Amino acid sequence: MSAADTAFVMVCAALVLVMTPGLAIFYGGLTRSKNVLSTMMHSFFLMGLASVLWVIYAYSLSFGTDVEGLIGGLNYFMANGVGAQPLEGQSIPQSAHLTFQMMFVIITPALISGAFAERMKFSSFTIFMIVWITFVYAPVCHWIWGGGWLQRLGCLDFAGGLVVHLNCGIAALVAALVVGKRHGYGTRPFIPNNLTLTLLGMGLLWFGWFGFNAGSELAADAVAVNAFLVTHVSAATGCLTWLIAEWMLRGKPTSLGLASGAIAGLGSITPACGFVGVGSALIIGGVAGVICYLAVLAKDRLGYDDSLDVFGIHGVGGIWGTIATGLFASKLINSAGGNGLFFGDPGQLKAQLIGVFAILVYSSVATVVILYVVKAIMGLRVSPDEEDAGVDTAVHGEVGYSL
Amino acid sequence: MSAADTAFVMVCAALVLVMTPGLAIFYGGLTRSKNVLSTMMHSFFLMGLASVLWVIYAYSLSFGTDVEGLIGGLNYFMANGVGAQPLEGQSIPQSAHLTFQMMFVIITPALISGAFAERMKFSSFTIFMIVWITFVYAPVCHWIWGGGWLQRLGCLDFAGGLVVHLNCGIAALVAALVVGKRHGYGTRPFIPNNLTLTLLGMGLLWFGWFGFNAGSELAADAVAVNAFLVTHVSAATGCLTWLIAEWMLRGKPTSLGLASGAIAGLGSITPACGFVGVGSALIIGGVAGVICYLAVLAKDRLGYDDSLDVFGIHGVGGIWGTIATGLFASKLINSAGGNGLFFGDPGQLKAQLIGVFAILVYSSVATVVILYVVKAIMGLRVSPDEEDAGVDTAVHGEVGYSL
Amino acid sequence: MSAADTAFVMVCAALVLVMTPGLAIFYGGLTRSKNVLSTMMHSFFLMGLASVLWVIYAYSLSFGTDVEGLIGGLNYFMANGVGAQPLEGQSIPQSAHLTFQMMFVIITPALISGAFAERMKFSSFTIFMIVWITFVYAPVCHWIWGGGWLQRLGCLDFAGGLVVHLNCGIAALVAALVVGKRHGYGTRPFIPNNLTLTLLGMGLLWFGWFGFNAGSELAADAVAVNAFLVTHVSAATGCLTWLIAEWMLRGKPTSLGLASGAIAGLGSITPACGFVGVGSALIIGGVAGVICYLAVLAKDRLGYDDSLDVFGIHGVGGIWGTIATGLFASKLINSAGGNGLFFGDPGQLKAQLIGVFAILVYSSVATVVILYVVKAIMGLRVSPDEEDAGVDTAVHGEVGYSL
Amino acid sequence: MKKVEVIIRPFKLDDVKEALTSLGVQGMTVTEVKGFGRQKGHKEIYRGAEYLVDLVPKIKIEMVVTDDLVDQVVERTIAAARTGNIGDGKIFVSAEERAIRIRTGETDLDAL
Amino acid sequence: MKKVEVIIRPFKLDDVKEALTSLGVQGMTVTEVKGFGRQKGHKEIYRGAEYLVDLVPKIKIEMVVTDDLVDQVVERTIAAARTGNIGDGKIFVSAEERAIRIRTGETDLDAL
Amino acid sequence: MKKVEVIIRPFKLDDVKEALTSLGVQGMTVTEVKGFGRQKGHKEIYRGAEYLVDLVPKIKIEMVVTDDLVDQVVERTIAAARTGNIGDGKIFVSAEERAIRIRTGETDLDAL
Ligand SMILES: Nc1ncnc2c1ncn2[C@@H]1O[C@H](COP(=O)(O)OP(=O)(O)O)[C@@H](O)[C@H]1O
Ligand SMILES: Nc1ncnc2c1ncn2[C@@H]1O[C@H](COP(=O)(O)OP(=O)(O)O)[C@@H](O)[C@H]1O
Ligand SMILES: Nc1ncnc2c1ncn2[C@@H]1O[C@H](COP(=O)(O)OP(=O)(O)O)[C@@H](O)[C@H]1O
Q1: Cα–Cα distance between B85 and B6 in angstroms, integer?
Q2: In chain C, residues 174-193 whose CB comes closer than 8 Å to chain B
Q3: Closest to D100 (Cβ–Cβ): which among F2, F58, F90?
Q4: I need a labelling partner for B148 at 20 to 30 A (CA). Which of A123, A263, B51, C59 fits?
Q5: Helices in A146-221 by DSSP H: which ranges?
Q6: Contact F47 A309 (CB under 8 A)
């Protein structure tokens, strides 16, 4: 066991944890003020709910003894036997592995919640999330990181382009379609209630993302440093290119565009960060800022109400980043990784495309099934009156601001 | 000296430091907007005041050469001799120990300030805090962590259930009673001015608490990882059970309930986190969420104005956590700890109860004496007019928001 | 390579990164609400812009092979060759060094932006910053940290008193004069829109400053711990003395005074933190709180509109801290440092004064030239109408709050 | 000239504004207010404390119009703001004696 | 019908509201305003700058009532809102010509 | 007594307030409002969505004054609030029947 690696992973776990409050305010600031608390609660509530599921059984489903490449066994039920002893090939207590990964199972479903902000029933949200974590997050996590079939196939996902971003992004798209539009969407102005919150949230996300990406190396080595550096570079270029694209197309460089571009850059580099160098990161982030912006513009044409653009940013960013890993990965950066197309191995790109396809299909189908079942049993939306009054007072009995 | 442990403790000290701004906004968001700054200042001001007292003499009183088990000597006056050399049994420079512990002497009195928010005189607050840190915090810290009588007696407090939470909680209860109710308490609605601040504050507290609890091991080892993990688990169950209790009793799951439950879970696991496992943490946090909620409900019956529920959450949580340590502690988790009642040693529970009783008595009596003396000399409250106008403009000459 | 040092530096880099969002809200809260986003964008935008310049060429200009003591060569263009191999005398991958230093090139120009908040044109801001980073930041950084002439001369600047604080402070003063006053300055009240943001921003700055100062040791050793400790102590005394000065002179202890004093203390200890002990830090911070307060009062007499007091706090603090290093530095604290005047070496003070003088002259002259060129080409200010309407809607097409 | 004051549900603002401008109303002033009336409020809960909040958010629109426009204004406002549920709001009409446009000094009808 | 406009200290809102409803006033509209008058303001200090803020927070209540209620409304409001210190506020009464309830189209007294 | 309602640009508040107090106006009530009129609004952009915001921030000042002061109030307000650009605002004058000072019960002219 290495004390340095252990210290590093603990701190990185804390950094990933703080992304969820960061996300809560990032999302919270974007809704109308009558829904700011309900939006924030989605994220905060998952800090409770997902964590409890994780230590009880979801960690085991994800990382327990592999069953046919599809799912983990229940050998780690209730964190049984997860203690000071490192997993094979690791230099940190397994309890640190469980802890670090726990932060991912919080933020992934929290990201989805942006799709149905301002109208989802809290009870239905709770049930949906329990089922989604169990039947979507855990298996997908197992496939890619827990020794499942995609991992064996050589699909690379350093820190969660598939497990986290594409997974949440496509689930969000499905959820936006099934839950339906907000009342007044497209006809009335929906002005963010507090962009200072959103910008600060972006800052916390960027900060925490270092733990997310560099921490995924599970060791304080040069690969971790590289991941840290390229994460930053991609975020930086993402925010610049989104801003420039917007400035050219719409005439105004907005702070929300800046923030959105940073998240696009961060999401896109996530699968790649342990495998690509600085030059590639400049490209990955730069492309991310533009294509995610275009995806967001497309939404307004297509007319579905993915309220906080989860698919446009995380879905599209996750796809792009996973493919980019298949293009730009280099064994010079990480000998334990692979070579992408541009470094001589077209096979890596193929593995990445299979990964993208698999998650797109599985996560969308599973999410649609779950949502329709929940809808049939208990409905998904608050009543129209509650929606007009605002979810905060109607469901939670609170108001965000009394300034 | 271990560089890994040193790095870990420094980062943990930074994490504990950021809890105080977190607390400032947690508290600040809960008051009426005319008092938001004065409430935040209580916390921020202690980042200055308590730190200076600490390096000058309070560290020495707490950790200097033991005098009869009651107090430390003045051998570390002005941080004299506190340098690169580790303390016995530690692997970090003593200056790191002083630094890490300094963050605790900031947040403990800052927690108290929630009891008398919106009406305390700033000058009286200053004097009260100087005296309280000297005559309450320092001795209590010495008793339990500095080689004092409670430590010798075998009372376990891994990260501050007694020193921090019970200590501040009971002082807060006393202060609420001595300072008296806010004008209009119980008759007019007191609506939190900004729950987004409060929720973000909770997020920062949760984040920083990892440093608080895991850092208290002063080494990046498996015990620290365990502390980290169970801290998170207890926070998670605390927020769930408070929310559920509230949902059942009042019909609404509130975001403030969620946040309060998380703090209850965090406070309660604090003394136990280095000694108990995940299963126990699920129970400790789960019980904390319910009993702290009931304590808060009871306040409204009893009618005292502990404005931000410091006793209900930290006091009750501190008592519960300290007792729970006597129930659930296990040498399998930490061989340097003890076995609780459920692991075969009723003696541990006894030691814990003595600890609870000692701090309850000492801190309440000392706090009441200090407050009455300050009251006699200079009064404790702002004038009724100032209270109606708001402490922010009346005392500090500022307004929180000009949106 | 040391994993512990690497972990430490990565985490410190993350801490320094989070200072920029902290600064964004610190500054954002101080302007009028119609300019809150444009003010925050200045900082956030630099997270993108400065980072990209840094990895492409500015790191190389700063730390590339020395050319006549004046500038670095282009050997690290595009981070070429910056990888796992540590620089001489360091125990971390050079990529970690590049990463850590990247955070400094973000926050230094971001600090300047407070001088011309609420009126600067965004396009001109962008051009100004590109040129300033290239022609001011990079050479100054090289002189002092990259093996340039000031470093050879023995001028000490542990973490950026000259490179960051004095450099930005004097540039800010110049910028305030060249850009000119805000419309209505001195005649209409300019009330901060949201001091809760400002206070939280101060908290994040304080938190991140640990990474800034302790991380500058690039190793998790006793010098780093000392830097950490004295940083905190100086911040603490700074906030106390500013508050007391204000209380005595104006009759009110303000939360903004508290926050400003903390920043003054932090800025002032920055060059000294690796070389001075706790006692000296008490003095450095205490003096900083008073003289920066007086500098801010003087501004209102002199009548220039350094809107967020960048010169008064960072400029004056940077000068004081750099001189104080020449007074209080001690080889007992850091054998790799020097002895200040009070520890027997007047030569150190001389070196410090040369450093102060050099940066004052170079940065002010270069900044004035750059600004006049940009002004001639494209102007510096938004139109009077845009200024009255607010930069947020006029330039960025957004509003900060819709509560 | 008459002053027409309209109190409506916040989310109806755009509809009412549109209805009025299409009528030829060239200016109006909008205020965020809280209304107390038959519409019942909601419960808010903060830890132990429970409050019945009986002030609900409303929008007040004030416009000064020529006498002959009043009836149409009332009619169109009702059409645009009505949901049929309690709390739709009120319209009040009162006399206005003078109006002046600051920019030009024009008065009365010319000032509207 | 008369329109009664009341300007009071913010913390008196609940008392006044209660006094008025007990009188039978069924509706009112509340606005957060700032008042300038004899009550002196306070000093605000932001770093070097010092401002005298002479606009103090007040609450404005507007209600349209039948003529016969006016005297009682005035009386009760005074009783509830008075502290005796400068800044207690004002009551203004003016004529209102028409009132319409949007929900039902009822007019005048029926609309209140 | 007349009620004068003035709608101005926010940044003109101090100038207008000063002009009025120098005239002897002893009290006024200020509200933050949004105005719709000839002044065109601005575009806001939030990711894909683009809105034309045609409500611009304005300040409303209400004051009740004696009849003989009205002309001067109008004149001075225009002088202080005018920029000459579209959106300078309006002044409206209407009759006020009664005024009462809550603190003392004084009425009408004595109450102002
Ligand atoms: N007498 C009144 N004077 C002034 N405003 C009133 C009066 N009655 C109602 N209002 C306003 O009209 C709003 C709607 O009235 P309410 O009685 O709730 O519903 P409805 O108009 O459907 O009868 C109230 O919230 C209040 O703002
Ligand atoms: N002439 C006026 N017209 C409109 N509002 C007024 C007038 N005079 C006073 N007010 C309002 O009444 C409030 C209280 O008035 P003030 O002169 O401070 O105290 P008092 O009512 O006790 O004499 C002011 O803050 C202002 O809002
Ligand atoms: N008929 C009206 N009734 C009430 N308020 C009006 C009316 N017309 C204009 N206003 C107010 O006056 C403001 C300025 O009017 P506008 O037409 O934009 O410019 P100008 O006064 O220069 O002609 C508007 O924003 C609105 O608040």
Answers
A1: 12
A2: 191-193
A3: F90
A4: B51
A5: 149-152, 167-179, 195-215
A6: yes
